Amino acid sequence: MPDYTVYVLTPLSRMLAMLAGGLLLFGIGYLFYHNLLLSLLLVPGGAYAPRLLRDYLRQRRRSALNLQFKQTLFSLSSSLSAGRSVENAFREAVQDLRMLDPEGGSDMIFELNIICARMEYGQPVEEALQDFSRRAGMEDVERFADVFSVCKRTGGDLVEIVRRTSTIIGEKLDIQQDIAVSIAQKKFEAKALLASPLAMVLFMSLTAGDYMEPMYTGAGIAISTLALGGLFLCYLWTSKIMDIPL
For this UniProt entry, which segments traverse the membrane (predicted)? Predict the structure, then answer.
């Protein structure tokens, strides 16, 4: 069963990420030093690229699963309000999500099919939900699974509880999406600011090579190293500022 808290890169993806990272660092090093040996010293930093790629793909997958879970909640609420049983509501949710994803390749459709298959074998739906919540590692899924389990055990009004829970979680997810959209522009601006010194150095190297020549010898190398270190610290700082947990 997939664990959505981790993302495992294929050996090919890992190798390509390291290669791309190494080439990028080599290019940056040569841009600042114009020295092959010093530029090669930066290449081992490309080993950090697979981690960046893995974290990005994991976050993208979890964000997509979060949105699909919201759509599933609205489908379950509508089906239960229409008088369908819990089992049929989950089967109907699969069909509703297939309307949004005709190929049926999304993680949420896969999980709903697993839940439906477990129900066919007689496993209680709340146990299947609890297993999904453990693998998802998402607070909203865990809360919904806990509420659903308590409701089934105590004989509460399942329709009303699912409807209200779906509404509350749906509103929370809407707020999270609004926050993500509002900081997307700031993330782009941060990336542009980080790239602008590189673009400036490249421009000066191409148009005023004689003017930049002192930066590639003697004290200029030390100044370039300090500039690269400051640029790296700015990258870490902006990444930490923009890393807002949702």
Answer: 12-30, 192-209, 215-237
Residue 68 · residue 106 · CB < 8 Å: yes
C-alpha to C-alpha distance for 97 and 94, rounded to whole angstroms: 5
- pTM assigned to the model: 0.81
Residue 19 scores a pLDDT above 90: yes
Tell which residue, 161, 163, 138, has the closest CA to residue 149.
Answer: 161
Size of the chain in residues: 246
In the numeric block, which tokens belong to residue 148?
Answer: 């659903």
Indicate whether 245 pLDDT > 70: no
Tell me how far apart the alpha carbons of residues 78 and 182 are, in angstroms, rounded to a whole number: 30
* Nearest residue to 81 (alpha-carbon basis) of 160, 171, 168: 160
154: pLDDT confidence band, cut at 50, 70 and 90? Answer: confident
